[in-house]
Design goal:
By secondary structure, this protein is mostly helical. Helix content is 66%, strand content 0%.
Length: 192
């Protein structure tokens, strides 16, 4: 695996400046959340840095990677190219950054939609992507506050906000996001 500094150099060279700034914000937020939640800050930083490794790839390149990796897209995924960078993120992170750690690869893979029964690291990368300092949307401060008080509640409200956003714009909602939110709702601490 590349060192953290080598990963940063690769990303700075291969991503747009605004995206690179976002990635640094996610990595920093992830480290803080990892410390609060008792997991490896180094893993969180690496996952935060790597999560958008495939973001600036061309559509044809992403299609090629999915075909080579025998990835079968759902109907929603087929019709939403905005999800593709996360679908292949773990493959690109492994190939370009040398990341082999399955926890990190899982967090990188699910950073956009979330999924049911996420690991702590996967929850952290999902929500850090949403609340890092350069993010500015209505309700972000509340989600930030909740996340730093209680990771699960922050992720739950992040999923809810994401679904609301997609609904108000009449956009497709990935089934993994719905399953992730329902998973939290089935937990007694989220009922009524």
């Amino acid at each position: 695996m590349l060192s953290i500094e080598e990963i940063k150099i690769y990303l700075k060279t291969n991503l747009m400046e605004k995206r690179y700034t976002h990635i640094l914000g996610v990595a920093d937020t992830a480290k803080k959340l990892a410390k609060l939640n008792g997991i490896s800050e180094e893993k969180a930083e690496i996952a935060g840095l790597a999560h958008d490794v495939a973001k600036n790839l061309k559509i044809d390149t992403m299609k090629e990677i999915m075909e080579k990796s025998n990835i079968i897209l759902s109907k929603v995924e087929q019709n939403n190219a905005n999800l593709w960078h996360s679908i292949i993120a773990d493959i690109v992170a492994k190939d370009k950054l040398g990341i082999e750690d399955e926890d990190i690869l899982d967090a990188v893979r699910w950073h956009t939609t979330g999924k049911e029964n996420m690991s702590t690291l996967t929850k952290i990368i999902y929500i850090a992507d949403m609340i890092e300092p350069s993010r500015n949307f209505e309700g972000v401060e509340e989600i930030r506050k909740l996340t730093f008080e209680d990771l699960d509640k922050g992720v739950y409200y992040g999923l809810t906000r994401s679904i609301e956003f997609l609904l108000t714009r009449n956009l497709l909602i990935d089934e993994n996001t719905m399953k992730a939110r329902n998973y939290f709702l089935l937990d007694s601490k989220f009922k009524g």
